[in-house]
Amino acid sequence: MRKFLLIVIMLFTTGFLNAQVSKVTGTVLDSETGKPVTMVVVSIGELKTTTDEKGNFELLNIPIGNSIIYFTNEDYEVFTSPVIIAEGENKIGSVNLKTKSTTNTEGGGLSEVNLSTLDFDDDNKGQNVSGLLHSSNDVFTSTASYTFSAAYFKVRGYDGENSLTYMNNILVNDAENGRTSWSDWGGLNEVTRNKESINGLSASDFSFGGIGGVTNIDTRASHYRKQNKLSYAFTNKAYTHRVMYTISTGLMKNNWAFTVSGSKRFASEGYVQGTFYDAYAFFGAAEKKINENHSIAFTFYGAPTKKGMQAASTKEVYELADNNYYNANWGYQNGQKRNARIKTTNEPTFILNHYWKIDEKTKLTTSLGYSFAKNGYTAINWYNAADPRPDYYRYLPSGQIYISLPNPPDPIVMSAITEAWENDVNIRQINWDRLYQTNFNANNAGKQAVYIVENRHNDQNQISFNTFLNKEMNEHLHITGGFELRKFTSENYKTIEDLLGGQYWVDIDQYSQRDYASDTNGTSIMQNDLNNPNRVVKEGDIFGYNYNINLNTGLLWGQAEFTYNKVDFFFAANLSGTQFWREGKMKNGVNPDNSYGNSEKKTFVNYAIKGGVTYKITGHHYLVGNLAYINKPPLANDAFISSRVKNTFISGLTSETDISGDISYILKTPFINTRITIFQTMFKDQLDVVHYYSDDYKTYINCSMTGVNKTHQGFELGSEIKATKTISLIAVGAWGNYRYTSRPTATISWENGLKPDKTETIYTKYFYVPGPQIAGSFGIKYAHPKFWWVNVNINYFDKMYLAFSPVRRTTETVTQSVFTESEVKQITDQEKLKGGYTIDASISKNIRLKNNININLNLSVNNILDNQNLITGGYEQTRESYARGGSASLGLFPPKYFYGYGRSYFLSVAFRI
Amino acid sequence: MKKINLKITFILLITAFAVIFGCIKKDKDITPNIPYVNFESNKSIKSLIDGYVSGVDTIKEDWIIKGIVTANDESGNFYKTLYIQDDSAAINIQIDRTNMYNAFKVGQLVYIKLQGLCIGSYGGMVQIGFPYTDAGSPTCGRIPDIFVDDHLFRDDMPGNPPAPKLITNFNELSDSLKGKLVKLTGVVFETPCEPYSLDYSATSNKIIDKQGNVIELRTSNYANFRGKGLPIDTGSIVGIYSIYGTTKQFAIRDLNDVIFDSLCPSSFVNMVNESFASGTLGVFKQFSVLGTDTWKYGEHSGKYYAQVTGYDSGTANEDWLISPSFNMDAYYDESLIFETATKYDNPSGTLKLFYSNDYIGTGSPVAANWTEITPINLSTGNFAWVSSGNINFSTISGNKVYFALTYTCTSTNIPTWEVTNIRLRGKKN
Q1: What is the CATH architecture of B45-155?
Q2: Which of residues 190-229 of B touch A (CB under 8 A)?
Q3: Contact in structure between A218 and A167 (CB atoms under 8 Å)
Q4: One domain, residues A44 and A113
Q5: How do strand B181-189 and strand B165-167 relate by DSSP bridges?
Q6: Fold of the B270-428 domain
Q7: How confident is the model at residue A8 (pLDDT cuts 50, 70, 90)?
Q8: So where are chain B's domains?
Q9: A-proximal residues of B, 300-319, CB under 8 Å
Q10: Which of A36, A292, A647, B38 lies at 20 to 30 Å from A440 by C-alpha?
């Protein structure tokens, strides 16, 4: 709560002498609890003091006249106010500071609200959140990470791998895909709230960082305020109920501090039909302050989560189901909804930290981390049987058009299918009963199960070490340096999850079995594991594929920050080495010579430099400029042509080079807090791999691309205006132009080996990077002195283009039939999605009971106008039938979409003692 | 104390609440049930076939037939087709579904409600389908997936299929046996060790009975046993008898239907099997001794081949299509077989077959010594594909043997030649 303090205090003291200086006194209190806050730095100009245990402060020798007084403390939002200092004692009275946590209570905090919108089918989507939990001082980033996340807005369009996240100084970005999985600490909002976030290229004192910025979540037990908090929330998003409990001792007199937190989030069905949610989270932190110079901290946490996922569908399917939240992944089994695609995640992590204050100006922070992850994702698999997915194209009315080509479809059949889809839930959803019946028939013939549910595992194991030194060389120079090491292994395999009443499954590749039926070596080519041919597997057994990815990396970095009156500047550089390789555990029949054992070990040596200048025009106006040149190793996930079956690396595997710069103008007055930024980032030599199943050629096809270049340029504006003492207005806008700027070279490789690898050029120059490139928000915040807050904002998203299938933009594809120029354009143009706007509102109230119990109530409603037409994600289908259908087949396999939630709410009540 | 009690109560209450809502149930198992039919059939298959006259006959009456499944799509040899047979006759049903064998196993009793379906004829075989009115003229096509369960009903679990009728003389195969399961005994194959079907097109292989009568074994190129070789000696074979026009045909369900003592030895291998489907000359190389035209890859109507013509340059050409090398000493009973097609001008003598023991493997073949193999059975014109038949290579020895097809044309006589499915086979030593 920002009160607009206009203080005119005239206290006459004796002394009409040249009393040019005077003193300022006051008390600082917590706006929620009313309790005094200690260790708050109070400053006017160069003069500083800190509040004592009673929250009192006294500033001496303040010049008379107009000044600005600042109150800063890590746990609270910075508070400033202009003051007019008179002679003698200026009693400011009590100043109420708002905790950083208070802003985040709206909508339940950032962690899981972001996650709830991400429970989608695509593995990558679930981790792609711009979980930029930046200091709420910057209104642009706090709006971008909360409000804009509903439309999957990414700050500056950057992929998640460009933003680094540390948990108590241990890097937690996934070693294979580079992204941060916020779900690894989902439900632990209370204890992951303390963070230090650096936006973009600015300097941090704990890491070199990335182009998108860096965050360190602080889990030191001594940094949690003493509290005992229990909360319950009720919502209709990805989950329905959430219970969270946190108890912190804060630093106690015996120099120990403990924090424990736990939560459960669950739903038998979330916002999207057929999606359930079952998540626990646990957290523990302990810290011992050995003496003034040494502290040791230990943290452990985990968030075992199990949820049913949604599949993207085409417009035709959403219309047939008359619901933009239709989900093809579920069906009724014994009257209950059963989802075929269940995602389980859990990454227990253990961190040990040592904080050493070597002297007043030097500190060394050392951390050791160990984590292991058990992740799985189920799916139905079938052997020589009808596709069990209800939205398989042949089961749809549009499928009839394809089947009847070149003739028109039979209208009787079309209407029968349409009617069945609209009215029969066993046609519209998975018919589990039929799957069990089919297996029963197979059992009677002594044959293997026809339908099964398999679970695709990605289990990880990681040890990390991080140490860095901060040293204040003199009043102008602060240097930091350190090194990080990481040793990582992932185990990738699949197991039989459920035989669906069947007796067994035989581990062979049914596609190779069919393709190589006439080959004398056919029976060995079709083996998934030549060392165990035709293995009979049952529930829990590993089958199909089995390989490890090993990755080791080390990074050395250094930084120098210079602070002067008018200008600050810094330089930083890093040098890193990365090595990774694949270790195959199965000898694959199609690739017998390069699937079992270790692949070549690829090593990369990389470096980066960055620098920035801050020019302080006045105390209110700043100009900031940053520039970076970063050379990064490729991601392990993009480096292999087909890691499931062979050790082969993509050709042209190389590091990427990024150049990025931004210039910002910042205005900070008691009335206005504004930042305007212009930026440009060029990514060069990125890689991408796309795997898909081709119906025409009946094999998996891997398309690995090199030479992917992108340029992201744009503006950002974030402004918060204090209109009155209770009302603030916010205006936030982002305009971007994120484009691919090259024609990548693709190697198209048939997994069944029936055709040799082919090189093609992908004609996607100047295509748009998917995601909203325009986003804006206008909001009003009202803070009533009696501890209630109201917030309303209207948001707009536009300039969104759909993720595209690279293989469609090759000469080979468009020449499969004779197409006119406009037809070629229809095939190759990138689809623009329709923009839209939403309105959110929230209201919170704090009640302070007599025996020091604090109750916080919060109700937030998102997308009040229930806009269900905002497409937030999706992809083009790779399947096409141009060879067979020519012009008549254009548009037969349209893109699949995800829609953003309609009206959703979040109601929470929290008790704090 | 009061504070703690309050806390504990809150915690207990909320935890209880959480536990109640939190129990996610494990999926309860489904008990499969045995299908059963509670109505009767009222027509025999024979009377249905006898009542068919011509064209597309849509059935308006509430007729119900029943039969036991004798053939389905399990091996891939029958596509979107089910054969059923009752005591009177047999008929096939055209169904637009794949992998139907999962529900309709051989030996499964099926009832069919015919009202709304149609009867049609294909090559003389009567079949049940679904009436379509494409562009005016009606056809009896495959029953769409969405309607199948309205017409076909399974009764009970699969049992034994009907016993096949024993046939020793193909002249006994009368119209009453059309579509039925029969067992041909005392038969041989005309081309033992040939594959049941080539990869790219369905294939017919001739079966000969003791009396010398011939029937064609028809195998689909999607059959999963297509690569196996036909048996060598005399034996029995079970399958479905059908006709196509005036030709008698036979099709097996899978290799369990082939009851012979000497199956083709697995040591009979293809040393080379080039169909040019890769879009290149595959393992073959070409060399132009004269002229600028070359052998190159071609494709027409799904068939791939190597082709050559002097038409582009209009001048005299001599172009060689050369094989990789073979160690003939490691095999015996080798034979070469390939298909050719030709058109334009006078092709006679313009395509020849040679082999060599001293070609170096690259560059011009002129320096090496080549022996012509003649006569060979070639296409005579009109792009009609002709098989060369088995060309005996068993007398050729050497550990680095090449063979080549040579094309020669003049500036006035320029035929086009297409060659494919070049297979050199032998038995390993």
Answers
A1: Beta Barrel (2.40)
A2: 195, 197, 199, 223-227
A3: no
A4: no
A5: parallel
A6: Jelly Rolls (2.60.120)
A7: very low
A8: 45-155, 165-264, 270-428
A9: none
A10: B38
